[in-house]
From TrEMBL:
Coiled coil keyword on record: yes
Cellular component per GO, a single term: photoreceptor connecting cilium
GO MF terms, alphabetically ordered: thromboxane A2 receptor binding
Residue numbers spanned by region Disordered: 139-180
Highest taxon listed in the record's lineage: Eukaryota
Species for this entry: Pipistrellus kuhlii
Stretches of the chain forming a coiled coil according to its record: 199-254
This protein's name: RPGRIP1 like
GO process annotations (BP): non-motile cilium assembly; retinal rod cell development
InterPro entries named among the record's database cross-references: RPGRIP1_fam (IPR031139)
Keywords: Coiled coil
């Protein structure tokens, strides 16, 4: 008597080829690695000067985009502040019954002050950019000067029994040193002159911008003083109007009695 037989005993085992999370992660990592390697190959084919030019160009474009974004944000804030101020002034004038001419004049003065303040902020940003360029130029000149001063010799750490270069400096080292530093002596003044010209131009622009900033700040202070005077006069007129309205109301109340 034979026992029960398993119908699936003769089937071949089948491997589960479904994707799990580790396989998906491995595929993504492989594709990312391939992409990185392809980018590295492309970058390695580009010269250092071209890479530096592209980097500086992208850096300047990034600065311009940030400046444009700041301008738009300042413009939005200024328009919102102006709208709130106009609404408040309109409500106050409606309560006091004041004249709209004075209100319009105050708004024009405040707009002029805001425009001057925006110019001052823009000039300060330009001043910061020029200072950054001045620092970069100084660092570049220092780096160029450091590259053009190589070591004349390297002293050995192991005692080989030979005489040191300082002890036996013969006639051959003199001409070689002269030949080695001859080109440097020719190119260094040109580089220094060019760098000094750039530094002087940047310093001149910074001084001009600082003068303009001081002038704009002086105008802003004068306009702010004038605005305070006009606001004081406006408050005095509002008080006079309120007193006259109270007197009229009291007179109407006595007439009705």
């Amino acid at each position: 008597m034979s026992g029960p037989t398993d119908e699936t005993a003769g089937d071949l085992p089948v491997k589960d080829i479904g994707l799990n999370l580790f396989d998906v992660g491995g595929l993504q990592e492989t594709s990312a690695t391939r992409t990185m390697k392809s980018h590295q190959v492309i970058v390695s084919r580009i010269s250092r000067e071209e890479l530096e030019d592209r980097f500086l160009r992208l850096h300047d474009e990034n600065i311009l985009l940030k400046q444009h974004a700041r301008k738009q944000e300042d413009k939005i804030k200024r328009m919102a502040t102006k709208l709130i101020r106009l609404v408040n002034d309109k409500k106050r004038c409606e309560r006091a019954g004041g004249g709209p001419k004075r209100l319009g004049r105050d708004v024009e003065l405040e707009e002029m002050i805001e425009q001057l303040q925006e110019k001052v902020r823009e000039l300060e940003r330009q001043n910061e950019v020029l200072k950054h360029r001045l620092i970069s130029t100084k660092q570049h000149l220092q780096a160029q000067g450091g590259r053009q001063a190589p070591y004349s010799h390297v002293q050995s750490r192991v005692n080989t029994g030979r005489r040191k270069a300082s002890d036996g400096a013969g006639a051959q080292d003199g001409p070689r040193k002269g030949i080695r530093f001859q080109d440097v002596d020719v190119d260094q003044p040109m580089l220094t002159k060019y760098g000094n010209n750039l530094l002087e131009e940047a310093r001149g622009e910074i001084r001009n911008l600082e003068d303009v900033i001081q002038t704009q700040k002086g105008q802003i202070e004068e306009l702010e003083q004038l605005t305070e005077i006009l606001k004081t006069q406006l408050r005095r007129k509002e008080n006079e109007i309120e007193l006259s309205l109270l007197q009229l109301r009291e007179q109407q109340a006595t007439d009705q009695r």
